[in-house]
Amino acid sequence: MANVYASNFLPDFTGCTLLSRYKLTEMLGSGGNGVVYKAIDTLKFSDSPTGHCAIKIIDKTDFTPAHLEFIHREVDIHRLVSTHPNIITMHDAFYDDKYHYIVLDYCPGGDLYDRIRAHSYRNNHELLKSAFVSLLDAVQYCHGQGVAHRDLKPCNVLASEDGSKLFLADFGLATKEEMSDEYEMGTHTYMAPECYIRLHGPTPPYYPPAADVWALGVILVDMLAGQSPWTVESCSPHNRYFMAFIQDPCYFDNAFPALSRGACDILKRIFNVDPTLRISVCELRKAILNLDTFFRSESEKRRNPTHAISGKSGMSWASLLPGRMRMMRARSFMVWVPFRQAHRRRLEVQIN
Ligand SMILES: Nc1ncnc2c1ncn2[C@@H]1O[C@H](COP(=O)(O)OP(=O)(O)OP(=O)(O)O)[C@@H](O)[C@H]1O
Questions:
Q1: b vs e for 115-146, b when ≥16 Cβ sit within 10 Å of the residue's Cβ?
Q2: Are 100 and 78 in contact (CB under 8 A)?
Q3: What is the residue with the minimal CA distance to atom 24 of ligand 1?
Q4: For the chain, what is the largest distance between any 2 Cα atoms, rounded to a whole number of angstroms?
Q5: Which of 227, 236, 215, 219 is nearest to 255 (CA)?
Q6: Which InterPro entries does this one have (predicted)?
Q7: Distance separating alpha carbons of residues 270 and 213, to the nearest angstrom
Q8: pLDDT of the residue at 345
Q9: For residue 307, which phi and psi values (nearest 5 degrees)?
Q10: Euclidean distance between CA atoms 157 and 269, whole angstroms
Q11: Which CATH class for the 112-348 domain?
C-alpha cells in the first residue's frame, strides 16, 4: 500500500518557537494531514509539570474553503470532548498564513499501533481489558456528546506508559451529524461496510456511531491477535477473508483459535453487517467487563479443540502470511484526496 505522510512535504520545524512560547523539540509522528511535534511550553501548563505538550501542524496552503471547514470542525469537536480523562486534551489552536497549529497534551506512551506491534496485549487479559475499556469510555463519552469519531484506528489512539490506559486523539474526521452521507471517510481497514459507496443504486446515509463500533472491533482484533480480522484489506466482496467471514458463522473461532468462545461471541455482535443490529458501545463495554477471559486456556483448547483448517472458511489466514507484518500504519482517507494526490504526484514518495 502506498502511503503519503505530511512529513514528506512539510519543512522540518524542529527547533522552531511558535508564539514566542512553544519550542518544538522533536517530531513525534506524522499522518496524512499533519505532523505532530513534541514541544516545551515555556509558560508551562498548570496541569503539565514537565511543561511538555504536543503540537499538530497542518499545512493549509492548497486548501479550499471546504478543506478549511474540516480543520475548524476538528478543533470545535475536539474542544467539545476534550475534558474526558481518556481523550487527549486540546489546550489551544491558532494559525498563520500557511499552517494551522493544535496544541495537545503530550502523551509519552506513544500510540497504540506501536503497542500492538510489540504484542503488548497478547495473552494479557487484564491489561487488554483495562486498556480497551478506557478506549470504550472515551468513545461512549463522544457518542453521548453527539460526536462520532469516524477514524478510530491504532495510530489515532495514544497509550499510557504502562499501556493500561488509552487516550483518543485526532478528531480530523469527526462529525456531529446524526446520519452521514460523507462516504469512505476514515481508513479502509477500519471502515464499516455501510460507509462504502454502493456500486449499484443510491447509497443510503449511515449512522456514524455504529460505524465507530465496527472500527473498535477491528482495533480489538488487532490488540488480541496482532493482526486485522480480514487481512489489512477492507471488508469488500473482493476480500476472500471477509467473504469467508460472511459465509462462516464460526469464522472467528476457526481463524483465531487462541481466542476464547466469549471473545468470539463479542466479535460476532460487533461485526454485524447490518448496523441497526450491531452492538452499541455501551453494550460492548458491559460485555467486555463481564468477559472472564479473551484467551482460550490450554485446558479449554484440549476439551474443545477448534481446527484452523476446518469450517466453511477452511483456513486460518494468519498462517498463510508467514513473516509478514499483518497490520500497517494506514493513512486516513477523506474528501480532500485530490489535494493529497497532487502532493503524491509532486513527490512520488512511496512508503511501505
Ligand atoms: N498528543 C500526542 N502525544 C504524543 N504523540 C502524538 C500525539 N498526537 C499525535 N501523536 C503521534 O503523531 C502521529 C500522527 O498524529 P495524527 O494522527 O494526529 O496525524 P494525522 O495527520 O491526522 O494522521 P492520520 O493520517 O492518521 O489522520 C500519531 O500516530 C502519534 O504517533
A1: bbeeebbbebbebbbbbbbbbbbbbbbbbeee
A2: no
A3: 31
A4: 66
A5: 227
A6: CDPK_Ser/Thr_kinases, Kinase-like_dom_sf, Prot_kinase_dom, Protein_kinase_ATP_BS
A7: 7
A8: 30
A9: -110, 135
A10: 23
A11: mainly alpha
Q: Name residue 38's beta-bridge partners.
A: 26, 54
Residue in this structure with the C-alpha cell 476472500, named with its chain if needed: 240
Residue type, 12: D
Euclidean distance between CA atoms 120 and 116, whole angstroms: 6
Run of H or E including 93: strand 90-95
Confidence at 202, pLDDT banded by 50, 70, 90: confident
Task: Report residue 163 as a C-alpha cell.
Answer: 499501556
**Closest atom, ligand 1, to C-alpha of 108:** 4
Query: What would the grid cell of residue 238 be?
Result: 473482493
Lowest mean pLDDT among 87-91, 183-187, 244-248, 337-341: 337-341
* Superfamily for the 6-105 domain: Phosphorylase Kinase; domain 1 (3.30.200.20)
Ligand 1 pocket, residue 34 CB under 6 Å:
yes
DSSP labels, 166-200? EEE---TT-B--SSB---S-B-GGG--GGGSPPSS
From the list 29, 44, 156, the residue with the least C-alpha distance to 91 is: 44
Q: Please list the residue range(s) of the chain that carry CATH number 3.30.200.20.
A: 6-105
Mutate to test the pocket of ligand 1, among 105, 155, 219 (most ligand atoms within 8 A of CB): 155
Expressed in percent and rounded to 5, the helix, strand and coil fractions of the chain are: 35, 15, 45
- On whether the CB atoms of residues 32 and 6 are closer than 8 A, the answer is yes
Q: Note if 151 is an active site residue.
A: yes
Residue linked to cell 460472511: 246
Output the residue whose Cα is nearest ligand 1's atom 1: 106
Closest ligand 1 atom to 331 CA: 25
Q: Where are the domain boundaries for CATH 1.10.510.10 in the chain?
A: 112-348
pLDDT at 198: 81
Tens digits of residue pLDDT in 286-324:
999 999 999 988 777 666 655 443 344 434 444 443 333
Task: Return the C-alpha cell found at 120.
Answer: 503488548
Between CA 282 and CA 287 the distance in angstroms is 9
Take atom 29 of ligand 1 and give the residue whose Cα is closest.
155
Query: Over 50: is that where the pLDDT of 55 sits?
Result: yes
